[in-house]
Amino acid sequence: MNKTSTILVVEDDSAVRNLISTTLQAHNYKYLLASNGETAILEASSHNPDIILLDLGLPDIDGIEIIKKVRSWSNMPIIVISARSEDSDKIEALDVGADDYLTKPFSVEELLARLRVTLRRLSYIENTNVHSSTFLNGGLKIDYSAGCAYLNDEELHLTPIEYKLLCVLSKNMGKVLTHTYITHEIWGSSWESDVASLRVFMATLRKKIEKEPSSPQYIQTHVGVGYRMLKVE
Fold first, then answer.
1. Do 165 and 224 have their domain in common?
2. Residue numbers in the chain where pLDDT is lower than 70
3. Is residue 36 part of a domain?
4. Which of 96, 126, 156 lies at the terminal end of a domain, its last residue?
5. Domain for residue 1, yes or no?
6. 202 lies in which domain range?
7. Residue 209 domain-assigned?
8. Which of 126, 153, 173 is where one domain is finished?
9. Domain contains 94
10. For the CA atoms of the chain, what is the radius of gyration?
11. Residue positions of the PTM 4-aspartylphosphate (predicted)?
12. Helix 160-170 with 192-209: angle, nearest 10 deg
């Protein structure tokens, strides 16, 4: 995946839309523009962009509904760019299928960094055999078929929950996963007690895979929202 990737910018504020499009053009990205939800859905379905940058507060269709519609037929990455800054707003967008969430006002540098992360994730997926039973990320290796994980060629002694948690994160590398999503994958439910348990298991897992658990290399915490596995170069 390179910078010939096409980005669909969905934003009704002309000043913000122009800022984003100018930034993309300056960094050699192709882009499409939509100022409302109806146009966004049309552009997404007809041009199949690599990434959607989506404002939630559109004049005709709420951005949450757009995410749901796109997810009904495509897994193209969606990065939300919104003035809605409450954790509940972020969680709702991520739970219905957004890949990342950037709060306004944002810096151009952060926007470009989020794009690079998403494009690296796409590139990794494209270059990985979808039928492969082995996951590699830095010194971390997971043999899905054998149910084993290794760090720097030494087998990790993980509990069943820790191993399942590691697999969920690895299969969504680069994507922010909410507490609700993860607990549903692990326990099939999302009670408050499940979220508390998740934090405990995440802490024990980090002690086993992170050289410095307080400065994690593999698993990033999004406070109040969830976790993301980072791509380790």
1. yes
2. 1-3, 124-132
3. yes
4. 126
5. no
6. 130-229
7. yes
8. 126
9. yes
10. 18
11. 55
12. 90
Phi and psi, residue 43, nearest 5°: -65, -40
**Cis peptide leading into residue 105 (ω within 30°):** yes
CATH number, position 165: 1.10.10.10
- Of the candidates 30, 102, 108, the one whose C-alpha atom is nearest the C-alpha of residue 63 is 102
Question: Total structural domains in the chain?
Answer: 2
Burial of 226 (C-beta count, 10 Å sphere; 0-12/13-18/19+): buried
| 83-131 confidence digits (pLDDT tens) | 888 888 888 999 888 988 998 989 999 999 889 888 887 776 666 544 5
Q: Tokens 């915490």 correspond to what residue? A: 221
Phi, psi of 214 (to 5 degrees): -75, -20
Residue-wise over 93-110: b if at least 16 C-beta within 10 A, else e? bbbbbbbbbbeeeeeeee
CA distance readout (Å), 206 to 33, 141, 182, 220: 41, 15, 16, 10
pLDDT in tens, 125-149: 666 544 568 899 999 999 988 889 9
The tokens describing 54, both together, are: 């989506």
Q: Is 92 left (phi over 0), alpha (psi -120 to 50) or beta?
A: alpha
User: What is the pTM for the complete model shown?
Assistant: 0.73
